[in-house]
Specification:
Largest sheet: 8 strands, mixed
Bound molecules: adenosine-5'-triphosphate, magnesium ion
CATH superfamily of the largest domain: Bira Bifunctional Protein, Domain 2
CATH topology of the largest domain: BirA Bifunctional Protein, domain 2
Structural class: alpha+beta
Number of helices: 13
CATH class of the largest domain: Alpha Beta
Radius of gyration: 27 Å
Helix content: 25-40%
Number of strands: 16
Strand content: 25-35%
Shape: elongated
Order of helices and strands: EEEHEEHHHEEEEHEEHHEHHHEEEHHEH
Length: 446
């Protein structure tokens, strides 16, 4: 390509300092930095190269008469995204990140960027999301996505930390399964040796079974749903944070969930200060307990606002738009849903007229559903009855039903969509942006 800029192996070169360590405490020290070029400014006799590593940016300044001639010529040829290492001395520079810059003495190029990326790194959004997703690994180098995925990592750690403290253990359940667990979204069929099987829509039945032996369990893993419609809140493969606890009901679980959300938000405030500053959005400010609307009260409220909704219908995001903003622009619960629109394992409230109301809740953020949870049915006859009512073939659930003959504890739980939670926290409209490699009806690559 170019005889002056050669690609070389890493060989014996190793990083001595991260960007976060390029500051006055290392003044005059010889350092080796590694990363990729996030931007470059060419002022003729001075070349500024900004190298980014996992912690941030480092300014490197090559001046024509201070730097070996061959090295300066190489600097002139460098392009954004190139992966490289630079050796040099740390010098004070007020205007550079960390108050210091590097005066280079040696350069090793690992991989030259051959094309200009079809998007700008510093900008939040400017081109169609599909162009970005097609080159996702490069797209993920953008500042805003870097911040989002660092926050995501904090969310996952905070959930694990919180649940461990509440005496939960982490489980993993099969993702290749024989039968459906949820109504609604369709299953993805797969070949399983000589049989048909499916990808799991949720760990629901397994996590319920595991409360028999472990009482309090949680799983963080993928769920697969063939969602027929193209929306900004549905993926075919999402990450679910599933929690199930023995000897409690849905009220205890709502309280557990809201405390977990609070812990997640507090952890982000503590660990992602610079990400929050960079994202420039209104971080959710919450107070416990979250507002609770019963489904029936909400129907009443919506009717009063002039919306035509029938008791027994699901609540669409469009319908929820009619709720007063001051109550619903943060997290809130909708409780006590009609039993008929909840899955068979959701317990009906024995006090309600012929069990038409269930012990269930959805955690909402604005119009977005973040989580569904409930008290579960723990008696076999009740479960069988509910399955029949919903037209399910009870035989295909034999493997599940038989454990109910051996003392299933009362239990309750919820599942949170991690990407939905991330949308709420980071104020992102399209779920595809908070998934590393989103899967939807149109996309199976990269
Ligand atoms: P929705 O009504 O929004 O389609 P749901 O009620 O069908 O969701 P649940 O079965 O209650 O979903 O699943 C629990 C949680 O998992 C949801 O509250 C949501 O956060 C998340 N979730 C469900 N389906 C998807 C999906 N296709 N993509 C992303 N997240 C999802
Ligand atoms: Mg739901």
């Amino acid at each position: 390509m170019n005889d002056q800029l050669r690609e070389e192996d890493i060989g014996l070169w190793r990083r001595t300092h991260y960007s976060s360590e390029i500051n006055l405490s290392n003044e005059e020290r010889e350092v080796t930095i590694m990363g990729w070029i996030s931007s470059k400014r060419d002022h003729g006799n001075i070349q500024f190269v900004i190298v980014r590593d996992k912690y941030g940016d480092i300014q490197v300044m090559a001046k024509k008469n201070e730097c070996p001639e061959e090295l300066f010529a190489q600097f002139q040829l460098l392009k954004e995204h190139t992966s490289l290492a630079i050796r040099g001395k740390v010098r004070p520079q007020e205007k550079a990140p960390g108050g210091a810059e590097i005066i280079p003495s040696e350069l090793r190029v690992f991989s030259i960027a051959r094309k200009a990326a079809p998007f700008v790194l510093q900008s939040k959004t400017q081109i169609g999301i599909d162009t970005r997703l097609d080159l996702r690994a490069v797209d993920l180098r953008r500042n805003v996505l870097q911040s989002i995925f660092r926050i995501r990592y904090t969310v996952l750690n905070a959930c694990r930390e919180f649940l461990a403290r509440q005496r939960f253990i982490e489980i993993n359940t099969p993702k290749m399964i024989a039968t459906a667990t949820e109504g609604g979204a369709a299953l993805f069929p797969i070949f399983y040796y000589d049989r048909e099987a499916f990808l799991a829509q949720s760990p629901q039945l397994y996590k319920e079974q595991l409360t028999m032996a472990f009482e309090n369990v949680f799983e963080i893993g993928p769920i697969f749903r063939a969602e027929p419609s193209r929306t900004n809140r549905h993926l075919s493969e999402a990450i679910s944070i599933d929690v199930e606890k023995a000897f409690v009901d849905y009220n205890d679980i709502m309280s557990l969930l809201e405390r977990m959300i609070l812990h997640v938000l507090d952890s982000i405030k503590e660990k992602n200060k610079s990400d929050l500053a960079a994202l420039e959005f209104q971080f959710p400010n919450v107070e416990l307990p979250f507002v609770r609307y019963s489904y029936s009260d909400l129907i009443q409220l919506l009717r009063e606002s002039g919306k035509e909704v029938r008791w027994g219908d699901d609540l669409s995001p469009q319908a929820l738009k009619n709720l007063p903003d001051e109550r619903t622009n943060s997290f809130y619960f909708i409780t006590d849903w009609p039993t008929s629109i909840k899955p068979f394992y959701v317990k009906a409230n024995a006090m309600s007229e012929s069990g038409r109301i269930s012990e269930s809740f959805d955690l909402m953020h604005g119009q977005l559903e973040i989580s569904s949870g409930s008290t579960r049915v723990n008696r076999k006859d009740e479960l069988l009855e509910r399955m029949k009512k919903q037209g399910l073939n009870t035989q295909s659930f034999d493997y599940h039903l038989k454990v109910f003959d051996y003392g299933m504890p009362p239990h309750a739980g919820f599942g949170i969509g991690l990407e939905r939670l991330m949308m709420a926290i980071t104020n992102i409209d399209n779920i595809r942006d908070v998934s590393l490699y989103p899967r939807d009806i149109d996309r199976l690559t990269p």
